[in-house]
From TrEMBL:
DUF1508 domain ranges (all copies): 61-105
Highest taxon listed in the record's lineage: Bacteria
Pfam families: DUF1508 (PF07411)
Name used for this protein in its record: DUF1508 domain-containing protein
Coiled-coil parts of chain: none
SUPFAM superfamilies assigned to the protein according to its UniProt record, in alphabetical order: YegP-like
Amino acid sequence: MASLVITKRFSGDYKFELTSRKGKTIFTSNPYELRMDCEADAERLKMLFESCSYVKFKTTKGKFFFRVVVDGVVMATSRKYSTELMVQKGIAEIVKYGSKAQILDFSNNDFTFTD
């Protein structure tokens, strides 16, 4: 199952990433100043995966990626793919599994490892 993972960047901003069933990042959201805004947009996007737009791009180095657009606003940018077919597979995985994704909040960084 895919997951929407909320984390805090070193800059203090929050972001969410959609990770595949295999744990690979499919896309990363824009930065958010407040965690609650990040969480709200993750929930909103989760409900809109099937109806949002996916705009494909090609870098100058020949890599492919896409942006997730909702109501004319770019919500997230995908990782780079080597082929256009892989981009299409990434989008297909979002449409198929995105609405079932669980939201995991790791933004507190309260991880404690004991010896």
